[in-house]
Amino acid sequence: MAKSNEGLGTGLRTRHLTMMGLGSAIGAGLFLGTGVGIRAAGPAVLLAYIIAGAIVVLVMQMLGEMAAARPSSGSFSRYGEDAFGHWAGFSLGWLYWFMLIMVMGAEMTGAAAIMGAWFGVEPWIPSLVCVVFFAVVNLVAVRGFGEFEYWFAFIKVAVIIAFLIIGIALIFGWLPGSAFVGTSNFIGDHGFMPNGISGVAAGLLAVAFAFGGIEIVTIAAAESDKPREAISLAVRAVIWRISVFYLGSVLVITFLMPYESINGADTAAESPFTQILAMANIPGTVGFMEAIIVLALLSAFNAQIYATSRLVFSMANRQDAPRVFSKLSTSHVPTNAVLLSMFFAFVSVGLQYWNPAGLLDFLLNAVGGCLIVVWAMITLSQLKLRKELQANDEISTVRMWAHPWLGILTLVLLAGLVALMLGDAASRSQVYSVAIVYGFLVLLSFVTVNSPLRGGRTPSDLN
After folding, report:
1. Alpha carbon of 175 to those of 165, 167, 252: distances in Å?
2. At 180, phi and psi to the nearest 5?
3. Nearest residue to 396 (alpha-carbon basis) of 233, 229, 234, 239
4. What do you get for the CA distance between the two ends of the chain, in Å?
């Protein structure tokens, strides 16, 4: 099969893809939300992160196999269509688009609230400035976007590395005023698993979607000059670095802080990261962490604008979106698709401020379960397409291990996660909400299959 980037630019390098994946997955959830899982499971939250991480590693290996074989800005939406037909590609693409749009609104709202407090202005002002700024970033040649996102994500990664170094120094008592901590928080009065298996289950629900966002790597790979090689390197790099950063950070926190002293954090001052940096007597930790949290939110927002625009562009090429969104600028940027994403970013931010009774809760609950549907469909697509990819000699250096058994295990783990969500009163609504949203999209796919929008295929669709 011929290599195709569907007419898009080829300015992204492997380092851009790697940092983009890291930047999407390392958001404010790591800095603010880590405490929720620790509070539920105690130090045993490490088991929850390992289980969630294992699911994501398996899913990314399967997605990487398909993406290296058939590079496409449509990524898993394209592979779903290849495997199961129009309904799968249509529903999967728009479901992921919906998820990112809603997440973008929440992230920009959070960042704008902090920036508004900094400058003493209404949050909508920094929100407007940032959205316009990122529109410009995403409308220039993709190489410029890649460089911007690279350095955005690089700062976050550097902060986490510094945090790990400081945390290790505190654990071993290497800093002035500190003493060797040992394993007191693991084997003390509460032990490693203070709330038992049910606590680990609750912790798993709290951290299950922490790694969401690294799928963007395979969307962006279509705009690299050597997509197969770039995907191979980027997928491996993102998998192990995300694992090290998340597990390492949680390990440091559980070593240094008793689990009963940790709660979910609504502000930078309450973040476990801030509290541990304060233990090292580092001045200005609250302001520093606020800046990092804003940076994390804006970096993820930027990457998600990119991903949603490329998804819409790919679906327009496959007649699953109006053809106007397949238009490219002279810089090979899908201008109309970017503008669509920016428009709905404004809508999503507006929903956060308006907060209509019931509607916003329903939409955000649906977001919580979207990743399960995406991961399950990636797994099913790989299981279905493997024979075809082998027969066409398309499989490159990225290959799923122990096929089909690890793919089947992935489906079992995802089914177990759904069962846990159904058994938890707080998470049950996520399953119901995403079932309604996804069911609507599947039905809509059958309504649109005979639409005038879906004319003959273009040459790029056949590559």
Report:
1. 11, 10, 15
2. -60, 125
3. 229
4. 6
State how far the Cα of 278 lies from the Cα of 98, in Å rounded to an integer: 39
Q: Is the pLDDT of residue 445 over 50?
A: yes
φ, ψ at 172 (rounded to 5°)? -95, 5
Superfamily of domain 14-448: Amino acid/polyamine transporter I (1.20.1740.10)
pLDDT tens per residue across span 259-287:
888 876 677 788 888 889 888 888 888 89
Let me know: does 23 contact 305? Beta carbons within 8 Å.
Answer: no
Rounded Cα distance, 248 and 268, in Å: 20
DSSP letters, 349-402, are HHHHHH--TTHHHHHHHHHHHHHHHHHHHHHHHHHHHHHHHHHTT---S---TT
Q: pLDDT tens-digit profile of 292-332?
A: 888 888 888 888 888 899 999 999 998 899 999 999 988 88
Residue spans of the domains in the chain: they are: 14-448
Q: Which of 150, 173, 178, 84 is nearest to 378 (CA)?
A: 84
CA–CA gap between residue 245 and residue 420 (Å, rounded): 26
Q: Please, are residues 149 and 19 in contact by the beta-carbon 8 Å criterion?
A: yes
Q: Please give the radius of gyration of the chain, using alpha carbons only, rounded to the nearest integer.
A: 22
